[in-house]
Batch of 2 targets.
Target 1
Amino acid sequence: MREPRQITASQTMMSIFNSMIGISILGLPRIASEHVNSGAVLVTIIGLGIMMIGMGIMTLLGYRFPKTSFIQFSKQIIGKKLSFLFGLFILVFFILLIGFITREFSFMLSSFLYPDTPMIVLVGAMLIIVAIATRNDITTISYIHFFYFPFLLIPLLLLIVLALENVDIRYVKPFLGNGNTFSDFLQGGLTIAAFPFVHIGIFLLTVLTPHTHSPKNAIRGSLLGGLFSSLLIILTLFVTIGVFGSMEAKSPLWPLYVLTRMVQLPLELLERLDILFLGIWVLSAFTTILSGYLIIIYTGSQLFNLKSHRVLSYIALPLVFGAAMYPQNIFHLFELIELVGKWGLIITMIYPLFLLFIALIRKKGKVMK
Amino acid sequence: MKHAAKSVLLVILVLLMAGCWDRMEIEERATILGLSIDLHDEETSDEPINHPNSDNIPTSEIGMVKITAQLAVPGQIPLGPSQGGGGGGPEDTVWVVKAIGHSMDDAISNLQQQLGSTLFLGHLKIIIISKEVAEKGIKEISDYIKRHPEIRRDTWLLVNGKMAEETLKIAPKLERVPVLYLSGMLDNAIKMGKFPKGKVGEFWVGLENLGQDGYLPYITVEEKEHIQISGLAYFKDMKMVGNLEPYQIAYFNGITEQNPGGSKALVKLSEDESVMFQSTVRKSKIKATLKDGRPHIKVNLKVIGNIVEKRNMTIDSQEVSQKIEKITEGLIKEQCEQLIKETQEKQSDIFGFGEYVRGSLRSYWDTEVRTAEKWREVYKNLSVDVETQVEIKEAGIRSK
């Protein structure tokens, strides 16, 4: 079945935004302040800067090969065998990563909302819904993202505005942090660039680009999406550090979620917003996992020359489920996410750069004007 | 066939997503509204529930703890305004239970052992610790509260001058549930400008920050009947080292720019002349500079307020008003300096001057200070300048 090509720039942007705003940004303030204390804002800017480079590389590749998918053009560039091997790496990497973030999300749900519900059910329910949603074609999935976009954006802006009045500017100073060296920032930046949402955001482009209206739309959408989500992530980080201070931001597992539990509407319209916000985080986790799952089955279908990504919708389920159930506890999970995420940088940054380089040398694909 | 498969899947999904595992009827929950933590002095041990009954049981750093909980009795707490008549007093709406244990959770489990329904801490409003507990250190209690997913950061943590459990036994006339009365009282005190924002979330921020120390509301129970806010307990690291008098809270609020204003000061102008000054807005600018290689804090405090009462004098001209402003400025400056000096002696930087130093004098902090302990040493001999400015806006609706 041929997939229609009609994703617009704004849909690309919204898809990237929804995929990046997910469960990992809840823990971002903790990890950023662990590395460089009050330099957290700067280190996040560095990390997201690395991500923008990755997105840039992917966009350039997409522009050179507008009609073919990532796996197809990597075949053209470096040959069948090598590209198949890397394709397998990509597949395994994303299966692990998506499993892990589903598990992190389930951990959060189980500690705040469903203490007695078995982990298997929380993980399973989410993955099954995601698998069903990926039975749609890619254009429809981008419409799903389009639909959820305001439900994520508006509460997030509301959160930032409500928390802003409690921000103590002392806590975000000094901008460089105390007692940090250049290598602290570099390591912190790399850790943030290895966050699951970065990988998903970058690789989602490989799925969307072949289906966008025109290559120009793809470029515009991906750059806008990357910048816009980065801006919001930095703002949420800023308010979290500004309210808690970098020392206190280290102590909860998900500082941003703790912040959402604290904010109150003016005039005490509703005493507690946390249940409302928990709903928003469930949505954000759904959209992120949806994109990630789509990357798995789309890459898989291209790799094994299948007709459509739908074929793998349910086949991939046990694999991702297995990855999700593997970590023993939350500490094990966080260690694994960091480890896998860092190795993933090779796949999402260095490998595309390598492809672009070879393509330039061998003059493959559309030549840029 | 395809439809059949789909419907089976749907049915399974419905079963999976109903969330029956965590179904909990409200009657099955023992909702704790208030919790108090005291020391248990007698050497009698608790019930052997989490450990065998022997002498060699790890006990928290403060010793055996006694926990008193105020539970809401289901169905007895009226929603909305009470309809008057018929309703009983607090004895009917809440239930006070006690337990002792070797640690926080040990005591809570012992409490659970006495109750038929599951304890629920999601609606916990107030945790009261006795002064003894606060002075011995709240590291473990704080960790427990922070770790518990049900307890929220907008819970009040209070220090009671004597026995904490007394607070839960009082029966105020204005509200059916004593704990709600107490938390409402504190919220209102903030709105009236008489108390700084100081829920447990803010306390933890002060506690964790390197250049800052925590403070908690300090209350006393008067005649076993009503509760009074009688100052601010300030901490050095995890231990309470002293408390401010209620009148000093006004100056603390001024330095830390807590708005709206509202606290009053009786200003003596001469032997038999005095006015009552009430602040409305406080503006405070704090700057950290380096002077001869040592940090120096400059506080610029501006207080805008009204005259609400006078004695033996006429207030009818700008000249008089300026005179009052001048004298009030002097008073505020003196009191602020006194207050800062007091906390310096106890090495408790509740104003967070250290955070200004950390933020603005980065290289000084990185070479000389680095840790919270070192900052407390520096704070002890820190030079602080207080500049005050008072503006009188209104003097009531009398012409003289």
Note: The two ends of chain A are 33 Å apart (CA to CA).
Target 2
Amino acid sequence: MTAAAAPALKMQRRSLYPGWFYLPAAVVYSVLFLAPTFASLYFSLTRWTLFDATFIGFDNFAQFFREPFLIQGLVNTVIYAVVTSGLKVVIGMALAVMLTSQIMARGYLRSVIFFPVLVSTIGVGMTFTVLMHPTQGMINQALALFGIAGPGWLVDPKLALFSVALVDVWKGVGLATVIYIAGLVAIPKDYYEAARIDGATRLQNFIYVTLPLSRPATATVITLSFIGGLRTFDLIWAMTKGGPGFASDTVASVIYKQYQAGFYGLSTAGNVVLFILIAVLVVPLTMFLNRKQGHE
Amino acid sequence: MAGLELKNIQKTYGKVEVIKGVDLDIEDGEFVVFVGPSGCGKSTLLRMIAGLEDITGGELYIGDKLCNDVEPRDRSIAMVFQSYALYPHMTVYDNVGFGLKLAKTPKDVRDQKIREAARILKMEHLLDRKPGQLSGGQRQRVAIGRAIVRQPEVFLFDEPLSNLDAALRVDTRMEIAKLHADLGATMIYVTHDQVEAMTLADKIVVLDAGVVQQVGSPIELYQRPQNRFVAGFIGSPKMNFVEVAVEAIGPDAITVGSKDVASLRVPAATAGISVGDTLTLGIRPHDLSPANTGAIVGRVAIVERLGNETIVNIELASGTAWLAVLDGDQALRIGESLALAAEPAKAILFDAAGKALLPTPA
Amino acid sequence: MRSRGSIIGGVAAIAATFVVFVIPFLFIILMAFKDKQQSALRDFSWPNGFHLWDNLYEVVKTRNWMMITAFINSSLITVVSVTLLIVLAAMVGFVLARRKTRWNGLIEFLILAGLMIPPAVVPTIWLLQGLKLFGTLHGMILIQVAYNLPFSIILYRAFIATIPRELDEAAVIDGARPLDVFFRIILPLLWPVTVTNIVVQSVGIFNDFTNPLYYLPGNQNATVQLTLYNFQSQFSTAYNLLFTNIMLITIPPLIVFMFFNRQIVAGMTAGAVKG
């Protein structure tokens, strides 16, 4: 009769949405993702052989910021992420505008641009390594037909990182394009019609309607490709292995190299550095992008 | 078959009290309608009976069984939802048979029951379709079919007609009434529409703010509402109210008046009332009729001529707006003065707390 | 009303995308048809003679038919981890979308973290060794599940939020237990997202190189991506074989693309936009 008796009884009835549904996923995720992530915070402070770890404080991190080739990896990572995400935004947007217009062969264009997204990164990397060969590669052979002496795409230390970034854009711009297409299609036609009645030109249409209203898509493309760029490993590994020298090393390739060399503590410190780098760059970035979004 | 008994049923979400102690007896085979404005707690009460909401306090008996902590499937209830909630990926046949399948009813028995339900609801031709291919009315039938196939002792309806258009609503209402007559099961029906409540119910439960305002038969609620809320909620168009002063207290009647109403002697309970008190007078629009010597005089503001009756919006001297439904076609001009007579026996007085001063029945 | 300008624009677009996006694939195919001498030139020329079958045979039988093992391994990893992903992610998405508790904020944070944070590889290896899962297919499968859960959960949660709760309640009244509600009502209704999930995650896991590189050392459990990587040095002078291999591993995504183009695009954009 009294309310006090009810809670005890209520325990017997099961929820329709049982909490244990979280359990299998939580176990797998915690053991294989969260636990190593937390463990990395400790092991990054050690000299580590997998069998025993000696605590050495911040030595690994100090080394990271002392060795020129490690610093270069850090700088390269940021350059790579900025270049790839910037190009994906610009090219993806342009392609999406083109593909949402009354252009012919839209289906063909869309498929052709998107397909590389699904192809093995390693395969793409190896193919372009061959295509980008300074003398035997098809790209420079084709340029030679026009009398242009093509650069040493992957062998020139100043160029290698950007060459890999270009291939990354080639492979990933299709995803940026479809995200933009989804964003552009969602813009109500009324805005364009209103702008047309106001006498807007096509360029003004793009600047005052398309650009601001596709900002959510831009935010998505930037966030996705920026995180992807910071974490990139496979394409770089397939094409240059960080070379020539350390010219195209990124934090992710450094992590792998240190791991191969048996410097497990240093490798793990690299992981923590990458983690912090992503947190420091991506969190403010997404906050910035989303705040802008909120204004609309 | 089973009746229900609710003893001091309460529901709170955190600190918010939604149901504040409901006591209710529902007889076996009765058709009970919970009615009230939105947010009054009627759906919550129904969902507590169904077992979809936990009961915070009090006791719920279905039949003789205490059901507070019984799973919905063991309460021998079935429910028809507002949105019908048909399973989109199953055919009508499987929708109706899902409960039986879960109860591991043998296939031949199941088939027979599904077809029987389909026959009762005249939807045999729909059995192979998916809900997406049905009209609103057909979905409604399937939802009811899903309920009757389980042969529950209590049917629960949660605003089942609110998604249908007006014409279909009247038809379906009649079918539900017929279903009740045929099956003889206990039915509890939630609606915010007092017309549905009046036409379907054996017993209406009027709820407001989580409290039962009155329980009774439709006519009882219409003729003898216990408070101003029930008087205003039941009946369409709504009852007119105006403040009046007590002029005289006679045996079993009170004479009231104001600048809107010339002295009117209304049969009422007189206990605790003294001359000079302010009361509220309630008169239903249908109980007003034009009369040159009428007690109520106002200015015609809006006239709606429907042919068989005329709905007049009048403004009383105090500025209060009243509605009168007059028989036949009345050619009235806007702005003209209109005198109306009221039958005193049908007028009701309410005290300052809103409680009706009903006369003791003869 | 198609103007001359837009026709020229269209033709130019087709030509440009052909050069940029199609020619590299044609190059792969042409190389796969060539013999060793001609492929060494690495130019865009018509094959002298038909050598595809020889090349295929050569690639497949290299290192004791390793390609076959690799395809089996990759398929196993993909099929099992995608199956697990679907069930686990749908369960989480279901409860997460339906039940509001004070834990929801933390869970959503962990999901976002999983999308952003790079896995800590060496500690993971150390842990897998401790669990005796390092270098095994089981370990690889669990890793793929753990790493890809957040994306699948996001896809599912967004979709489940669109399924009316009254369906769950109707099922409960019909006598369904929580598992019945999930497996008989919710999961079947999730089919469109499930297809998206299957397609997107299969492609991702099949193409994954980094994780097998770390967690599946040795030839015995190699995946197709690892095999290609390992063959690179072996085929360094035999470009015909290298490109035959590349073509071979491009075929599965091509098939998926041809059949599920729409779902892939829908899934990738939906997941991206909501994430």
Note: The two ends of chain B are 37 Å apart (CA to CA).
